[in-house]
Write a structure and sequence with these properties.
about 250 residues, alpha/beta, Undecaprenyl pyrophosphate synthetase, 7 helices, disordered N terminus
């Protein structure tokens, strides 16, 4: 904790929070309602957490919306999700612009239908000049895909004689991955009760703090988010050494 001139304590909040939003389908099943209703309710939770991120002055919020493994789900669910993604992007892009939020989509979007790809490009272009919160949405993303994709890019550079293999280090390698120009992830939150990272940012979160909660994503609220931030503030981060590098926010 840090004490300011007024004698009040300041919490050491993270700059970059990433969330694995799990539990939408179980939320619907628990209530005996249409099984895809959880996804729609999950969108409402996203809006609330974005507002909380703005309130707590986070610099970056990264949300895991659709993994590269989610293609194994039923055709009907995938179709529903693709339509939901398109609708949300089309309706919410203008709100993100008004709130000075810069939207970035990370993942392999080439597999999406042309309408969704156009919506992604349009939303990113509309908010690209915003300098407030950076909102990363991981869609068709997988940590292994990210690393393999980076290796392929490096291989091309080496083949073209633009990169010396002997000079490749962690810093150079990370430049070829998603979030390459984004500050490190401080805190990873996973809802839904599962205790794993599910192929999410497996390179980028090597030294991130992990926070797991049994709360299903549609039920995750502002207080729950605050609880996670406050838990982070209590932890001592050494990064393999003895330095506590928590970020102090006003």
């Amino acid at each position: 904790m840090i004490i300011n001139k007024l004698g009040l304590k300041k919490l050491c909040y993270p700059n970059h929070v990433a969330i694995i939003m799990d539990g939408n389908r179980r939320w619907a099943k628990k209530r005996n309602i249409w099984k895809f209703s959880g996804h729609k309710e999950g969108v409402n939770t996203i809006k609330k957490i974005i507002n909380s991120a703005l309130y707590y002055k986070l610099k970056v919020l990264t949300l895991y919306a659709f993994s590269s493994e989610n293609w194994k789900r039923s055709i009907n669910e995938i179709k529903f999700l693709m339509n939901l993604f398109t609708t949300v992007l089309n309706y919410e892009a203008s709100n993100l612009k008004k709130k000075n939020i810069c939207l970035k989509i990370i993942g392999n979007i080439s597999k999406f239908n042309i309408n969704l790809q156009k919506s992604i490009i349009k939303a990113e272009d509309l908010t690209k000049n915003n300098n407030g919160l950076i909102l990363n949405i991981a869609i068709n993303y997988g940590g292994r895909w990210d690393i393999i994709s980076g290796i392929k890019k490096i291989a091309i550079k080496i083949k073209e004689g633009l990169l010396d293999p002997k000079k490749i280090n962690e810093y150079i390698f990370s430049k070829y991955l998603c979030l390459s120009n984004i500050i490190p992830v401080d805190l990873v939150i996973r809802t839904g009760g599962e205790l794993r990272i599910s192929n999410f940012l497996i390179w980028q979160i090597a030294y991130s703090e992990l926070y797991f909660t049994d709360i299903l994503w549609p039920d995750f609220n502002k207080k729950n988010f605050k609880d996670a931030l406050e838990e982070f503030s209590k932890r001592k981060r050494s990064f393999g050494g003895n330095i506590n590098n928590k970020i102090i926010l006003k």
